[in-house]
Structures are given as structure tokens and as C-alpha cells.
């Protein structure tokens, strides 16, 4: 079968999107989280979009002149100065949502035609009966629906209605091997009884500054990786430079300090720790001009890691949309994080500081902050799957630390409660006291 019809395209819409990004490059983070170069029909617009994404990743400021120079270096567009001038000599918009939706709609039509074309061609031959083609068409429809749910950017995100019949295989698997959905051990029996981290969840760790939120997460991640071989992407300005963070992880792995002790780890132990960390951890180093959640997620997406840490939340830039409050922004970002965790099937951890705390008037001590006391928004309590507070008793001879499990959304992952651990300041390890 041949056709004289061109594929669906909207070059005027594509031109508007590209021109708007050239003139208002602050919109690029939103666009790159939604579009891919293949979303464009025009090869020139694909190239221009790719060039701007590359410039942003390299920390190069985007203006018309620098973009023209970048396109000239890439040498894929004829006369890039004229191309940029013609692009920007058109109507543009600061608010791309509607135009991006139209662009994706056309892209989705082209994608669907590509999926169906080979099957439909078979109907023009005598080699196939109609009933033989039905399973193939059904498979294509399922593929389109699945791509929509998993966030393929060239398919309209319409979603679908699931029935028990459609997911019967998944339900059988859940019934027969439900334990694999229950999360993993934390390495501390007392905590695992209440909280089992699981892929596809959004986990928040809070606590008063200096009480050991980052230390606890590091110990938790080491335990999980030692027992379950999880791989991690770590965005932790709290622990930069990376040398400091690697030292802390090494001491937890080996159980010895790196410096200033007669019992410090030897060179063999040091290199063994480095090798293990290299296998299980990657450290995200964002450019200071692009310290956004979108930049983090773009680096992690498709990387195959099991977990992601953002520590702390307030190191990420706040980029409010027109009329948006900080509360609305946090809610939108947490929704994005939760969806990302589910689509990528990874466990996302965020360390968030509480708002200003006040001492208990009776005891003169700070109480453990609750989910609704996390700074910025009540959305922390509402959007997260699991929330833990790390609260340290500095007057305890045992360096006791309370791990308060304030929220566990799914009972298969545990239940609320409070557990005590002992913190070893020398190695950074946490242990359980059998006498408790």
C-alpha cells in the first residue's frame, strides 16, 4: 500500500514552540520534561531543540547569538543565523502548555500511523485473513495505552480504565508472590517491623537541623545496598564535596573511621570501600544555573537505579508559574516526584527541613517535628507515601536517636511507630540496643 498523504504535522506550532524557547529560555526546563527531539516533525526544529537542551546541560546561557554559534558548531542546519532570525520573526508565547499539547497531539498521530502502517499493509494482500491480523492490532493498541501510562512523550497521556480482567495476570502474580511487593529490610529489625522501603514510593525524612537526617539516610541506603544490591543516584549538596560524602559512606561500610584514630581503616579497606561505593552510588553534580528538580529527574530517568535521594529539598530552585504560590509549587513538584517514582519504579527519598521549631514549655526540649511541620506546605504530609522523623537525644549516654515513623501509606510496607537506635559518632553507624 502506498499513500500520497503527508504525515500529520504542525510546523507553525513547532516553530512557535522553538521560537518561544529561544526568546524565553527559562521555559526550557518545562519543555524538556515534556518533549523529546522526536516530538518535532521538522529536522531543523529537532536540531534547535536538542542544541538548546545541550546548552542548558552545559550551563551555557541561551540567547540568539550564542544559539546561532552553537548551531553553527553542530553543523546540521544550513545558515543557522538566518534560521534563528526567521524562527523568532513569528508569534511567540511565554505560556507553552497549549502549544506543547498541540505539538504532542500531532506527534502522537504520526507515532500511531507508524505503528499501524505495517499491519494495515497486510490487509491489501491475499496472504492474510482478517482474523489473523486482529491479535496484532490488539497488541498495537495495548502498546499505545502502555506508552501513555509510562509517560512516553510522543503519545497523548489520556490514560485508560483498568478492569480486573485486563490485569488478571498482574493480580495472580500479586497473590502468589505478594511478599515481593512488601518492601525491603532496612537492616534494623525493629525499624523493618514498622517501615520497609519499596520501589515506586515517595519517602520523606525530616528532623531538626543537626539531628542526623542525612546520616540516617546514608546508613539506611548502605544497609539496603548490602542486603539487596540497590543502586542509588544521590543529589546531596548537604554532603558536598563528594569526598566528604564518600568518607562518611566508607566509614559506615567498613565500620572504622578514615582518619585520626589508631583503629582507622587501612589502605586495602579504603580501596575496597571505594570499589563498592562506585558500584552502588552515583553523585549528581548540577550546574549552579540549573539546580532544578527537572534537571535531577532528567539525569536519573532511564538510568536503571533503584533509588534517588534529594538532600535537602531547599537546595532546589523555586520557579513559580504565574500566580503560583510556594505551597502550590511544592504540591506540583511532589506530585511530579511521586509519578516519577512510580513510572521509573524507583524509591525516591527527600530530606526536608521543618519550619521553625519551638521548645516544649514543660521539658524545655524540642519535640520531634511532625509531617505537618515540614517547611513550606501541608502537601508534604498529604503527597508522601511514607514519612520519617529523625530525632536525637543529645543528653543520652548511648547517643540515642528516635526514628519516628509518622506515615506509612500502604500497610504492606509497615505501620506507624517509634524506634530507638544508638548512633556511633566515630563510624556513623546506627545499631539496636538489645536491652530495649
Report on the architecture of this protein.
- The chain is built from 15 helices and nine strands.
- The chain has 436 residues and is an alpha/beta fold.
- It folds into two domains: 11-149, DNAb Helicase, Chain A, CATH 1.10.860.10; 183-431, Rossmann fold, CATH 3.40.50.300.
- A hairpin with a 7-residue loop joins strand 6 (386-392) and strand 7 (400-408).
- Helix 1 runs parallel beside helix 3.
- It is globular and about 80 Å long.
- It starts with 10 loop residues before the first helix and ends in a 5-residue tail after the last strand.
Q: Hey, roughly how much beta strand do the residues contain?
A: 5-15%
Low-confidence stretches: 148-156
Binned, the helix content reads 40-55%
Number of strands: 9
Overall CATH architecture of the largest domain? 3-Layer(aba) Sandwich
How are the strands ordered across the major sheet? 3-2-4-5-1-6-7-8-9
Average pLDDT works out at 86
Number of helices: 15
Number of domains: 2
Following the backbone from N to C, one meets helices and strands in this order, namely: HHHHHHHHHEHEHHEHEHEHEEEE
CATH class categorisation of the largest domain = Alpha Beta
Shape: globular
Kindly identify the CATH topology of the largest domain: Rossmann fold
CATH superfamily of the largest domain: P-loop containing nucleotide triphosphate hydrolases
Amino acid at each position: 500500500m502506498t499513500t500520497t498523504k503527508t504525515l500529520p504535522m504542525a510546523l507553525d506550532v513547532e516553530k512557535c514552540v522553538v521560537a518561544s524557547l529561544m526568546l524565553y529560555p527559562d521555559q526550557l526546563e518545562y519543555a524538556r520534561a515534556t518533549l523529546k527531539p522526536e516530538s518535532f516533525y521538522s529536522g531543523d526544529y529537532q536540531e534547535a531543540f536538542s542544541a538548546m537542551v545541550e546548552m542548558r546541560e552545559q550551563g551555557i546561557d541561551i540567547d540568539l547569538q550564542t544559539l546561532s554559534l552553537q548551531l553553527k558548531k553542530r553543523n546540521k542546519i544550513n545558515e543557522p543565523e538566518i534560521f534563528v532570525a526567521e524562527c523568532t520573526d513569528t508569534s511567540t508565547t511565554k505560556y507553552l502548555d497549549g502549544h506543547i499539547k498541540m505539538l504532542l497531539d500531532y506527534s502522537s498521530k504520526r507515532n500511531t500511523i507508524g505503528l499501524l502502517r505495517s499491519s494495515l499493509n497486510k490487509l491489501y494482500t491475499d496472504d492474510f485473513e482478517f482474523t489473523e491480523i486482529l491479535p496484532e492490532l490488539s497488541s498495537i493498541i495495548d502498546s499505545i495505552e502502555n506508552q501513555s501510562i509510562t509517560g512516553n512523550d510522543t503519545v497523548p497521556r489520556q490514560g485508560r480504565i483498568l478492569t480486573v480482567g485486563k490485569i488478571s495476570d498482574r493480580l495472580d502474580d500479586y497473590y502468589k508472590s505478594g511478599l515481593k511487593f512488601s518492601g525491603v529490610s532496612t537492616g534494623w529489625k525493629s525499624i523493618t517491623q514498622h517501615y520497609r522501603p519499596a520501589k515506586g514510593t515517595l519517602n520523606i525524612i525530616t528532623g531538626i537541623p543537626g539531628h542526623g537526617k542525612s546520616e540516617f539516610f546514608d546508613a539506611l541506603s548502605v544497609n539496603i545496598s548490602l542486603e539487596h544490591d540497590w543502586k542509588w543516584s544521590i543529589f546531596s549538596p548537604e554532603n558536598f564535596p563528594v569526598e566528604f560524602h564518600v568518607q562518611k559512606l566508607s566509614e559506615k561500610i567498613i565500620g572504622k573511621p578514615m582518619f585520626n584514630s589508631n583503629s582507622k581503616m587501612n589502605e586495602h579497606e579504603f580501596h575496597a570501600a571505594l570499589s563498592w561505593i562506585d558500584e552502588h552510588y552515583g553523585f549528581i553534580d548540577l550546574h549552579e544555573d540549573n539546580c532544578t528538580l527537572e534537571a535531577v529527574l532528567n539525569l536519573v530517568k532511564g538510568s536503571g537505579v533503584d533509588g534517588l535521594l534529594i538532600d535537602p529539598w531547599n537546595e532546589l530552585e523555586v520557579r513559580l508559574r504565574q500566580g503560583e504560590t510556594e505551597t502550590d509549587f511544592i504540591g506540583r513538584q511532589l506530585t511530579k516526584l511521586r509519578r516519577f517514582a512510580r513510572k521509573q519504579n524507583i524509591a525516591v527519598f527527600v530530606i526536608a527541613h521543618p519550619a521553625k521549631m519551638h521548645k516544649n514549655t514543660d521539658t524545655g526540649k524540642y519535640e520531634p517535628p511532625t509531617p505537618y511541620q515540614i517547611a513550606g506546605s501541608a502537601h508534604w504530609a498529604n503527597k508522601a507515601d511514607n514519612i520519617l522523623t529523625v530525632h536525637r537525644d543529645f543528653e543520652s549516654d548511648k547517643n540515642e536517636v528516635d526514628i519516628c515513623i509518622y506515615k506509612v501509606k500502604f500497610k504492606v510496607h509497615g505501620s506507624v511507630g517509634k524506634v530507638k537506635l544508638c548512633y556511633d559518632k566515630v563510624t556513623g553507624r546506627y545499631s539496636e540496643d538489645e536491652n530495649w
